[in-house]
Design brief:
Blueprint (H helix, E strand, L loop, with lengths): L9 H11 L11 H10 L6 H11 L3 E3 L7 H13 L6 E4 L2 H4 L3 H14 L9 H15 L4 E4 L6 H10 L3 E3 L15 H20 L5 E3 L11 H17 L4 E7 L4 H21 L6 E7 L9 H18 L3 E3 L12 H17 L10 H22 L4 H11 L17 E4 L5 E5 L7 H18 L5 H10 L14
Parallel strand pairs: 1-8, 2-3, 3-4, 4-5, 6-7, 7-8
Antiparallel strand pairs: 9-10
Helix pairs in contact: 4-7, 7-8, 8-9, 9-10, 10-11, 10-14, 11-12, 11-14, 12-13, 14-15
Length: about 475
């Protein structure tokens, strides 16, 4: 079938499904009807969507780490520690890199080596290899909802096995798990593959099992303007809703400027609801996730806690439904479970302290309006390019540079748009490339960057971009010249 934003017909879906389940031996253990019954047997406190809806209704912010190791027993130990000692409200299972690339034989070797070495030789949990029964051991051992987090362009088999295993939330999408993660995968392919993921989610939904879906918000995680990540999140949400998904969490990665970040989270939910209703999806529940700082971290642990605390405060003041928590060991590589729990407790403390406070800065509404207008200009152009079909339009938008993700490795990404911070640390657009922003918005972005240039007594240039990329790891938000530090 040609790419289009239409629900996959059952006959086509189940024909493709037969092939998907043969890609690794554990696929034969997937029984859709039995899996649906297993989900229905789960208590409410293990179901992601129910916990998110409750948090949204109460206006509270839930905390969730990232974590994954090779062996089932070790993953259970890790998640139990984060649940009990880290006070996590929601849990992850981060998938290993081999599985993300559909290299299951190498993942199997990693499992064997992990048994041999008595430590994880993979950077995540190889769910496909462990199969349905292995996944269920996690679900049955924990008292907290667990989400699959990964980075896989073709995640169809992974979805089948983890859904059958009882996971109640699933991250990713056809744009956000392609352009930032892969170099040579065509957009048409990943959108089709993720339509399969969303249709499977829709089938569970129609059977009375609501599985939460979460587009990956931060993209490359470095200087991504809110309008770019918002546009991608909303497109992936629309694609998911068309396949029958009813519970969607749209995400955003912290940029560092409090006003811009709060405005971004608040407009993200608002704009997603707006485009959902505009496209006929009136029964989809939208929640938000705020990702703590995704760029370089300070080597010093105390300074790293400062970065985590700032992200925690921003998440609380923005009223995000949940926050993805970092650790004080980010600069050193894979964190210990103790460091992961420290990051969680630090975040929980800040969330609790700020739960009843409001962010009422005078310039917040201006920033929200900037994000609204920039995001709409991108999304409306995507619909125009697709003649009303957002699946087609998003592919053409990437080809045309209308969607242009900074620093993405994909050869299909234009890579012409350049972001830089303004004088107060908000991310602005230095060079729009082919992004279709209105002239007054382009003038606004340029004026804010020129204001910084005057203060720093230098020209607005690519050097600012470089300086901003490394700023946080050096203890600052804005990449100032050496003479100003």
């Amino acid at each position: 079938m040609e790419l289009q934003n239409k629900r996959i017909p059952d006959s086509e879906f189940y024909k493709v499904r037969e092939e998907i389940l043969t890609q690794w031996p554990t696929g034969k253990d997937v029984d859709l009807q039995e899996a649906i019954e297993f989900h229905k047997s789960l208590p409410d406190h293990k179901i992601f969507s129910k916990k998110l809806i409750d948090a949204k209704n109460k206006g509270t912010t839930l905390i969730q780490p990232r974590a994954g190791v090779a062996l089932i027993r070790d993953q259970i130990e890790l998640l139990t520690y984060l649940q009990d000692k880290g006070e996590a409200d929601l849990l992850p299972t981060t998938i290993d890199s081999y599985t993300r690339q559909n290299r299951y034989e190498e993942a199997e070797n990693g499992i064997r080596e992990s048994f041999k070495e008595r430590r994880s030789m993979l950077n995540g949990f190889p769910a496909v290899n462990h199969g349905v029964s292995g996944c269920r051991q996690l679900i049955q051992s924990l008292n907290t909802p667990i989400q699959v987090r990964h980075g896989t362009p073709d995640a169809r088999l992974l979805t089948e096995i983890t859904y059958a295993g009882g996971f109640t939330s699933y991250e990713g999408g056809g744009i956000s798990y392609n352009l930032p993660y892969a170099k040579n995968v065509p957009m048409e392919r990943t959108i089709r593959d993720w339509q399969y993921v969303d249709r499977l989610t829709g089938i569970y939904e129609e059977a009375g099992v609501s599985i939460n879906r979460e587009p990956y918000g931060p993209l490359t995680g470095t200087l991504v303007p809110p309008c770019v990540s918002h546009a991608v999140a909303i497109i992936e949400a629309l694609l998911a809703a068309e396949q029958g998904v009813k519970n969607i969490t749209v995400g955003y990665g912290q940029c560092g400027n409090l006003v811009q970040d709060v405005a971004a989270i608040r407009t993200l939910e608002e704009l997603t609801d707006e485009y959902m209703i505009k496209n006929g999806h009136t029964d989809v529940i939208i929640t938000t996730v705020f990702h703590q700082w995704m760029g370089g971290f300070p080597q010093d642990e105390a300074k790293a806690f400062g970065v985590i605390s700032w992200g925690s405060a921003t998440a609380a003041l923005s009223k995000a439904t949940k926050v993805i928590v970092k650790t004080p060991h980010e600069a050193a590589g894979v964190p210990t479970m103790e460091a992961n729990a420290q990051g969680l407790r630090c975040t929980k403390q800040l969330i609790t302290m700020l739960a009843d406070q409001e962010c009422t800065a005078a310039n917040l509404e201006e920033e929200k309006e900037v994000i609204r207008r920039e995001t709409r200009s991108i999304l409306d152009k995507c619909f125009e390019l697709g003649n009303g079909d957002i699946a087609i339009g998003s592919v053409r938008a990437v080809q045309a540079g209308v969607i242009d993700i900074p620093f993405a490795p994909s050869r299909f990404n234009a890579g012409k748009m350049l972001p830089a911070r303004d004088n107060v640390g908000a991310i602005r657009i230095l060079d729009p490339g082919n992004m279709p922003l209105p002239k007054d918005m382009l003038d606004f972005n340029r004026a804010r960057i020129e204001e910084r240039a005057r203060v720093e007594k230098r020209k607005a240039s690519f050097q600012m971009v470089i300086d901003d990329v490394y700023a946080i790891s050096k203890g600052r938000l804005v990449g100032r010249p050496q003479s100003m530090r």
